[in-house]
Write a structure and sequence with these properties.
This protein has 269 residues and is mainly α. The chain is built from eleven helices and no strands. The radius of gyration is 22 Å and the shape is globular.
């Protein structure tokens, strides 16, 4: 075996070990969620669906999961709409004022979430929104917009800037040019931003902690509250469901990338 092949197999081995190290905790959580024991034990003594049934029969888990799905859906739609409008408005312009606006839009990516959570809480509390679905949707949308701006902006960078002017010279109106030329070209970026916004909203905890109440809380906040009480395998069942939702959304993202080409869909950093 030559040196090049040896180093290649060594690299594959290291990558495989790292992947196992990262995936193993998630697999253990999924396995424990099917445990028949009332304690968090591994390996489980037997197989049971009791903890998934517990999620359905317990109002707190059922209602929090419903809230998370509602907030995720509204956040994804609102953030995608606003983020796409912002990305299209900023595309191709290099003025100092617009550069500052772009930096402001991307600020939630670099500002510590605890700082953002405190600021959002003070603003929405003054509006009397804390403890409502619209407060959670508003806050999650603020956090998700930068991801949509990044993905749609990246898609716009790969389009030919001469296509729209050419359509306008041929008699198309700006709205028709956008609908029939720009929109089809950036659709993969829009769908990617939609999926990222959905994942971020469904998994978000810190901001949700500030805005939730015992009557209106997301599933991540319910999990956080459960950790401070009597911990049982039910929390591993809800964690497995969250993992499943995230994997389905990321799988949809990968499917978009394969259908549209790897260069059409860009993951924001």
């Amino acid at each position: 075996m030559n040196a090049g092949r040896l180093w290649r197999w060594l690299a594959y081995t290291v990558c495989g070990l790292v992947a196992i190290y990262l995936i193993a905790p998630m697999l253990i959580v999924v396995i424990i969620s099917f445990s028949s024991s009332a304690l968090l034990t591994f390996p489980p003594p037997g197989f049971s669906w009791r903890w998934y049934q517990n999620l359905v029969t317990t109002p707190a888990w059922r209602e929090s999961f419903t809230v998370s799905l509602e907030v995720m859906t509204l956040t994804a739609l609102l953030a995608t709409t606003l983020g796409t409008m912002a990305a299209v408005g900023l595309a191709g312009r290099r003025t100092r004022w617009l550069a500052g606006l772009r930096t402001l839009l991307m600020a939630p990516l670099v500002v510590p979430q605890i700082v953002s959570a405190a600021g959002i809480f003070l603003l929405l509390d003054a509006c009397g929104w804390v403890g409502t679905i619209r407060a959670l949707v508003t806050a999650h949308t603020v956090l998700a917009i930068p991801y949509v701006v990044a993905t749609v902006g990246a898609a716009l960078e790969t389009t030919d800037p001469g296509l729209v002017p050419a359509a306008l010279t041929l008699g198309a109106t700006p709205s028709v040019a956008f609908r029939r030329i720009t929109l089809p070209l950036i659709r993969p970026g829009i769908l990617s931003g939609l999926l990222f916004a959905a994942v971020l909203s469904f998994d978000e905890l810190i901001v949700s902690l500030f805005l939730s109440t015992p009557r209106t809380r997301t599933v991540t906040v319910q999990m956080w509250s459960n950790v401070f009480g009597d911990i049982d395998p039910a929390i591993t069942a809800i964690a497995s469901l969250i993992l499943l939702v995230s994997m389905l959304l990321l799988g949809a993202y990968s499917l978009i990338g394969r259908r549209r080409g790897a260069g059409s869909v860009v993951m924001p950093l």
